[in-house]
Structure formats: C-alpha cells, structure tokens
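User:
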Amino acid sequence: MHLNPYGADAVLLAVNLANRGFSTADELCDICIVSGVESRLVLDRQITDDDFEQIKTVLAEWIEVVDCPDPATRVELVNAMLAKYTEHPRLTNHAGDGWHIHYRPDAVGVGRLVATLISTGSALHLAGRGMTRLGRCATNDCENVYADMSRAGRQRYCSPACANRDAVRRHRSRAKP
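Assistant: Predicted structure:
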C-alpha cells in the first residue's frame, strides 16, 4: 500500500514553510522531514534558484488562501493554484515501490513538486475537513498560520504554546482589580 503524499503532510509542509522560512536546500529538506514529506522527494533532485523562487511564489498564493475569510473566494484561489500547478491524476510506479497517484509529471523540478504538493494537499484538506480549516494564530502578537487537523475543527492557535500564552493573558486581564 502506498500512502497519499498529497494529504495532511503536504498541508503541514506549507504551514512549516510559511512559519519557519527557508533559505538553503538543507533547510528545505529539514522542513520536508519535519512535515512528514519524504525528504528523498527533495534530496534526489537538484535545487535551483528558480525552485526557491517558485516555492516562494506558491507560498504567497497559499497565504492568500489562508487569509481569505470568504469560502467561495477561497475555493476560487485554490482552484487557480490547482490549474497552475497540477495536471490530471494518473497512476505511476516511477520508483518501482508501488503504484500511486501523481498530479504532476515525473520529471519536474523541486519548485513545481512542492507547488503541486501544497496546492493538491490544500484542496484535499479543505474539501475533506472543511473550508475553515486553514487560518492564522489568534494570539495578537503571532502571525503564524495553522492547518486545523483537530477532530472538532475549532483550532485557533498555531501551537499549544500560543494557546497557553493567550489563556494566561486572558486570565490575568480578568484578575486585575
């Protein structure tokens, strides 16, 4: 059985790229590993300056999706990313390790590969979990983004640390005389 590389790991890749930033191939590979995306997808390819620019472009487009409050407009933005970065789904066994679905040609650069993962993964995430499942941290001084993977669909913070900090701030503001 081959797991879907376009699922939650791809959305977490977008979150981690947006929140952490990257400027080297090693940093990009580290973020892929932390996000659950197979690092060989990146390590086995030459990473060019154009790849870095394409990843920065797709992240800027993805941030527009995250920041969009209107579900219909959010759908339009995701569909535009899908049209730009993906192709019709097809079965492949390019690595000889089992059949699986790709939404891209086999021979693409890292930039296009990451763009395809992020756009397809985001579409599957929003369609499967709900159109409100991407957002910005609710803590006033945090600009991080999150992908809500919670069962209830009520995530508001990028991390438990931000949630705790905000809870302490609210508690202290109520406790002041």
